[in-house]
Design a protein that fits this description.
alpha+beta, Arc Repressor Mutant, subunit A, nine-stranded antiparallel β-sheet, 38% helix
Length: 211
């Protein structure tokens, strides 16, 4: 049994995948679930964005099939099929276990895990052979007993990141040391995406504390 598991984060630019290009064209922020490859070669994409213009851009992309959009509380959720093979698929083939994918105006952020140094070497080698892939972070995955903030309080990684950045930068101080736009810029997301994550994270924390 391999006991070593590492959390890895990549930043990708110049990828021609549909969501990256759509986020650039619509100047949008997109949060996506890990892509699911199908036996027929298509990939199921599930993602959300506060920017309604994204749908028009994706509809015009002939690589996208069966685009569906639903609106909930000002946030648009999408599902579609794509026949484009993107950078993240190369990393997955080498053993990268994707947990979250984000797009902001053409730039991608992939966070996931690798099990063991051999797998890490293969993933890094694949990353080096693709365009615009930069390793942002490698850290050991916490043991189950240690429990990170997100595990202890049932937060998503994005909500934990937003809360930690806001706290560390002085967003909760009185008066505020930074604005929401400042924290969003530090995270590389839109202001609306940051505030949405922050509110959802705070709601989850308060519900558990007050209950």
């Amino acid at each position: 049994m391999i006991s070593e598991c590492l959390v890895v984060e990549f930043r990708v630019t110049g990828d021609g995948c549909p969501l990256a290009e759509a986020s650039r064209a619509a100047e949008a922020t997109v949060e996506a679930a890990p892509p699911l490859r199908r036996g027929d070669g298509y990939t199921l994409l599930r993602f959300s964005s506060p920017d309604p213009e994204l749908a028009e851009v994706l509809e015009a992309d002939d690589r996208i099939r069966y685009l569906h959009r639903a609106e909930t509380g000002g946030e648009y959720t999408y599902r579609c099929l794509s026949k484009e093979r993107c950078v993240v698929h190369r990393l997955i083939d080498e053993g990268f276990l994707v947990e979250s994918v984000g797009y902001r105006e053409g730039t991608e952020r992939h966070v996931g895990a690798v099990v063991g140094q051999d797998v890490l070497s293969g993933v890094l080698e694949a990353a080096g052979e693709t365009v615009g892939v930069r390793l942002e972070r490698i850290s050991p995955l916490r043991e189950e007993g240690e429990g990170g903030v997100d595990a202890r309080w049932d937060l998503t990684p994005a909500q934990t990141e937003a809360l930690e950045a806001a706290y560390g930068m002085g967003y909760f101080e009185v008066p505020k040391a930074v604005t929401a736009a400042d924290v969003a810029a530090e995270l590389g997301v839109s202001k609306s995406a940051f505030l949405e994550r922050l509110r959802r994270g705070q709601a989850t924390l308060l519900r558990q504390v007050l209950d």
